[in-house]
Amino acid sequence: MADEAHSLAVLIDFENLxxxxxxxxxxxxxxxxxxxxxxxxxxxxxxxxxxxIERLVEKGKVIVKRAYADWGRFSKYREVMHDLGIQxxxxxxxxxxxxxxxxxxxxxxxxxxxxxxxxxxxxxVVSGDSDFTPLVAKLKENGKxxxxxxxKDSTSDLLAANCDEFIYYEDIVAGSVASxxxxxxxxxxxxxxxxxxxxxxxxxxxxxxDVMYSSMVKDTMKRKQPxxxxxSYGYRSFSDLLQDAxxxxxxxxxxxxxxxxxxxxxxxEKQ
Length: 271
Description:
Elements (H helix, E strand, L loop, with lengths): L5 E8 H10 L25 H8 L3 E10 L8 H6 L3 E4 L5 H21 L5 E5 L6 H9 L3 E6 L6 H6 L2 E4 H7 L15 H16 L5 E2 H11 L13 H10 L3 E5 L6 E6 L4
Parallel strand pairs: 1-2, 1-4, 2-3, 4-5, 5-6
Antiparallel strand pairs: 7-9, 8-9
């Protein structure tokens, strides 16, 4: 993928993910499957779609967010879906045909967006169902990048192999760790900004960004938290925030020779 921000359409086969999450609580079976007990979120709210969206905004601007399910069965997720701005596509369950209808509707919507919304260059299929493999191939045939997201135990190897990138939910959960920023060395009012900065640099490193311009870092922070403003934390400019983080021994900066702007080299090595 190019360095510029991408426009993403996220289409979620929610039933596949939710049921896969429930099955992940079972120990590995005797047939040698990859089943592992997945650490469940605090309070066991179920499948954490919020973590998935937070991971995906690191890749670009999410233009479309749709989730397909019989929401009468998954009513406990309605509030978080609403909070995340995910459009809940109602697919009433009608025996075996209900699930098939959800798959077909997701595929139809994906192709409709593919042909009608040229500015969307990346599609995210949140499912492990092998039935979506032809859809992935068609999207790629039309010049779109395709990212898959699914549970390890319930993801088809065929689907994962055909995507440009596949992210396992378990890896997203494992990566959502608390910031390593020392609370004792940072004024309390500035800790949220420093923590978000750290998370955003980690996100860019995951995306293999070798040169992290200050504008790129701030754009990532804004995608993760659109309400972010450095002035809310007592900084006159974003450069002041970066320099403060460097003074705290958290990151290393250098100046770009051509533009004169700050470039984040990476995290400072621990002494």
